[in-house]
Amino acid sequence: MNFEFIECFSKDNIKIEGLYEIHCKTFKDKRGLFLEGYNQRQFFEAGLTMKFVQDNISYSRKNVLRGMHFQKNHAQGKLICPVSGKIFDAVVDLRKDSQTFGKSYSVILDSKTHNELYVPEGFAHGFYVLSRKACVLYKCSDFYYPEEESGFLWNSKAFDVDWKLQIRSKKPIINERDLSFKEFKLEQQ
């Protein structure tokens, strides 16, 4: 198996169903490195039977914060992989029927450690760039629908993502749309 699938837990030490950190096995020699970022057979054997229909790539510079985003309908499962660079990645469970509704998870994803995050449908997602630059690949389980796009403020108090540990001296670089989002409230979702 070229992947190690690790189940993710909220800060309350509650398993978040369907959320996995994935470590890719690497093959190194004098030429460099090779790894598989996704292998349908091995993912299916691990119980991750999603089908990806779209790949997205974002390029960002240090201190850029993207998120927290989701689609209202046509929810997207995402396999998030930093192709280059290092990011602080955060998700919030928005599945109303989930025992972990409103719970968050965060992890540092780094192209040097070759870890990925699989986020199932029904989550909000965002990240903050820690390295000088980052190129992030998202494999998505549904197509992008601009009219379905939504989000909430990245630093909403209703969930416990600790951005302060990562954002130290500089203000994050955030676009106007992300700044216009409202505070996340459990009862409104």
Averaged pLDDT, please? Answer: 93
- Number-wise, the strands total 13
Largest sheet: 6 strands, antiparallel
Tell me the distance between the termini: 39 Å
Structure write-up:
This protein is mainly β and 189 residues long. It is built from 2 helices and 13 strands. Strand 1 (3-9) and strand 2 form a beta hairpin. It starts with a strand and ends in a 9-residue tail after the last helix. The model has no long low-confidence stretch (mean pLDDT 93).
Descriptive key words:
189 residues, mainly beta, five-stranded antiparallel beta sheet, 2 helices, 13 strands, 6% helix, 45% strand, globular
Concise structural overview:
The chain has 189 residues and is mostly beta strands. The model has no long low-confidence stretch (mean pLDDT 93).
Spell out the blueprint of helices and strands.
Layout: E1 3-9, E2 15-24, E3 26-29, E4 32-35, H1 40-45, E5 54-61, E6 65-71, E7 78-84, E8 86-93, E9 104-110, E10 115-119, E11 123-129, E12 133-140, E13 149-151, H2 176-180
Antiparallel strand pairs: 1-2, 2-10, 3-4, 5-12, 6-11, 6-13, 7-10, 7-12, 8-9, 8-11
